[in-house]
Amino acid sequence: MENQLRDIKPLLEIPDSSYYFYIGVLSFLVVLLCMLIFIVVKKFILNRKETRHKRYLRALKNIDWSDAKKSAYLVTKLGRVLAVEERQKEIYWQFLGVIERYKYKKDVPSVDEETLQKYNLLVHVLDE
């Protein structure tokens, strides 16, 4: 009977890596969550911050056309910076042709309705 017991081998230890796998997945999720929180916070901070584009667009929207000459020069300056896309540049250059009669003269006429309509179109396109 003792011979039979000697033939039984001892229990083998099976390596278990599930603990390391769990720690790895948990670490990955924590890093991913931190990156997501960072991106969301950065997005909110950047949207809240007033950029040069937002400042110029607000100034362009608030132009007072009672002084046509000063307004024409201001639209020229602000529009040059704000028009970056091809469509915006095209409408900006068309509008420059319209307001040309309000610039480079000592006495200028008051702004007519057609000029204001084109101005509103320019502001709308630049605001997109």
**Structural shape:** rod-shaped
- Helix/strand-derived class? mainly alpha
Oligomer: single chain
Mean pLDDT equals 86
Which stretches are poorly predicted, pLDDT < 50 over at least 5 residues? none
- Which band does the percent of strand residues land in? under 5%
Described by strand count, sense and barrel closure, the largest sheet is: none
Distance between the termini: 93 Å
> What is the domain tally?
2
What does the radius of gyration come to?
A: 35 Å
User: How many beta-strand runs?
Assistant: 0
Could you state the order of secondary-structure elements as H and E?
HHHHHH
In DSSP terms (H or I, runs of 4 or more residues), the helix count works out at: 6
Tell me roughly what share of residues is in helical segments: 55-70%
Provide structural commentary.
Helix content is 70%, strand content 0%. The protein folds into 2 domains: 2-48, no CATH class; 52-127, no CATH class. The N and C termini lie far apart (93 Å). The protein has helices at 2-6, 18-48, 52-61, 68-82, 86-98, 113-127. It has 6 helices and no strands.
Short overview:
With 128 residues, this protein is mainly α. The protein has two domains: 2-48, no CATH class; 52-127, no CATH class. Helix content is 70%, strand content 0%.
Helix-strand layout with pairing:
Layout: H1 2-6, H2 18-48, H3 52-61, H4 68-82, H5 86-98, H6 113-127
Helix pairs in contact: 3-4, 4-5, 5-6
